Amino acid sequence: MHPAFSVIFLTTLLGVGQGLFLALYGAEVASVLQWLPAQDARFYAWGSLIALAFLGIGLGASFFHLGRPERAWRSATMWRTSWLSREVIVLPAFMATVLAYGALHLLGGRGTLVVGAAGVALCFALFVCTGMIYACIKFLQEWASLWTIVNFTLLGCASGYTLAAAYAFVAAPDLATVYAGTAIVLTFVALCTRTASLMRNARIRPRSTLQTAIGIKHPRIAQKAQGFMGGSFNTREFFHGKPESVVRAVKWSFLVLVFPVPMALLAAGGVWGVPALVGLAFAAQYAGLIAERWFFFAQARHPQNLYYQAMS
Amino acid sequence: MTQLALVIDLNVCVGCHACVTSCKEWNTSGQAGTLVDERPYDRDPTGTFFNRVQTFEVGEFPNTQTVHFPKSCLHCEDPPCVPVCPTGASFKRESDGLVLVDYDKCIGCKYCAWACPYGVRELDENRKVMGKCTMCVDRIDNPALPEADRKPACVMACPTNARLYGDIHDPESVVSRAIRENGGYQLMPEWGTQPANHYLPRRKTELRIHEDELTRVDNPLKIDGLLPKPPVKDPSLDDVTSW
What we know:
The structure holds two protein chains of two kinds. By secondary structure, chain A is an all-alpha fold.
């Protein structure tokens, strides 16, 4: 598939916002249980605002994917069948809940735990919707697995907690090491699951072949013409168009940038108490996530490509 | 239940692209506006087509077959592109089983194109909405056209009659017969999409001549083994009496 940057930014930015919200609410619950020190209401309010900003920019990025963005409101109608439609409903609902959560903290209202719990439910629903958009297309075999949802969730949580650690170093230093530690654990778990999905995808045998695509039982079939001499939507949308070396380089760069680099920076920043290192950890991890999502798209081999193997 | 479909006979398709050009001609002239055609006579041309003819070489020299393979929307009976559409712009019409796009509802998110394993949906760069074969709904349902012309433009254009059109749920339709009698098959059956369009495979063309086709059994000249010989006095009718 051709990696579209609008969707890359959408999925990665949503993940950061969702993870950051989970970090905020987790800290509040832990403080009620007296496992962690209680924080100022402003910590939650500003944190919610940052999460909201990530979600909002992600939502904005998604509009660049649409041919007719002015009709985007229509996309909430088919929630009975379409995961994309479900995401379109859950995302604004989650954003409204995050806004309410932050506002309640800022205005000193009661019931933040209840609103936050609703936010957590919507947050995980959003992870499932975003993942299922890709996982439900069964013939994109690289995507059609539970790993897609698991990785979207864990990578979102990991990057959100890394951002939370950077934020806490500025706003709530007594939470910083807890957040950094959690971020390291989440990043490590995400490394395990992402590696598992890479191993699964490396072993995939495509179910569709040129033989089933044109229905001719012969081991040797070669395309001689695809019907046109120039490009078309089919040749642009479903091919990443980069040499194999670039794809491999992107894979290794995300494996380095998303996992070991932020883990090392988080550990160093946490131990020595250097906020800049934790900020750098988030920057590195987010840059890595863009590469990760690019690779996620580029790796998926669409069966329609079987029909476009040779120009003429 | 009606399920309109095309049956494409790979045995007689000669790869002339007449179906491609007539499809483009009809669908670029309709109410929905033109289909994009950028730089048609320049370098790197691009455009939206609902129908393509591709060419494959099967086998190894000298034992090869050139197969021309027309490809358009297969109007699946279980279309994977329809349930993913977030707006309901993509739908399967109850009355005749066509998979259609409501251009006024489409937001151009391309998700349906991702969800089609056959690559028959194309986003039009000018309209910014998804386009695909409509089986020429504006022809087949058009009372202003003579009955004989209420067929898809590609079917009308095919010079070798490689494209048959009809209802595959009617067992006596021309398409059902063709599928049944000539081994019609579906593309990528592994995904369970049940395409309505079928393809007829290459078949060995054999000349089958029966004895009675060479010698006319009921030839009146040979009934008695004798030539009819009227009396000499009878009027002569040169057209009738042949000696």
